[in-house]
């Protein structure tokens, strides 16, 4: 385990590009930590889900493989997890509690302000509702 303050790091990822960008941003920032990439399967809240749960779980596995390939650090432990819920931010926070995460780390996704207003800004909710540090990392350092 790490001697630093962040031994268990929850890392939300949403899609292939996010897995790659976030993996690159996280790589080299934590020593001997456990990284917990999480993909949230957003449930429709009573309505039938647009995509089957099994299909979304397979998608999550693809994201985890991308994330792990980018990290490529034998000193880190990677424990991927899938969360299920109607509110992505609330689900991430519940998993952070369940996994005893010391921090939540993510790279902001570029979304239009209208989309954020209509769907709710997950990043804002994470920052405002959590009881643990949230680290927001810059995106691609190569760009």
From TrEMBL:
Residues 6-138 form the UspA domain. It comes from the Archaea. It holds the Pfam family Usp. Signal peptide: none annotated. InterPro entries: Universal_stress_UspA (IPR006015), UspA (IPR006016). This is Universal stress protein.
């Amino acid at each position: 385990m790490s001697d630093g303050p962040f031994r268990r790091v929850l890392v939300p990822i949403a899609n292939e590009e996010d897995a790659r960008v976030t993996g690159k941003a996280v790589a080299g920032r934590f020593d001997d930590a456990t990284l917990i990439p999480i993909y949230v399967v957003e449930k429709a809240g009573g309505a039938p889900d647009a995509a089957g749960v099994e299909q979304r779980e397979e998608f999550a596995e693809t994201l985890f493989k991308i994330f792990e390939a980018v990290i490529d650090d034998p000193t880190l432990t990677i424990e991927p997890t899938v969360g299920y819920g109607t509110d992505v931010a609330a689900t991430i926070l519940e998993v952070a509690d369940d996994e005893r995460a010391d921090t939540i780390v993510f790279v902001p996704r570029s979304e239009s302000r209208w989309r954020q207003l209509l769907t709710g800004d997950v990043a804002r909710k994470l920052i405002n509702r959590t009881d643990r540090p949230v680290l927001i990392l810059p995106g691609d350092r190569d760009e």
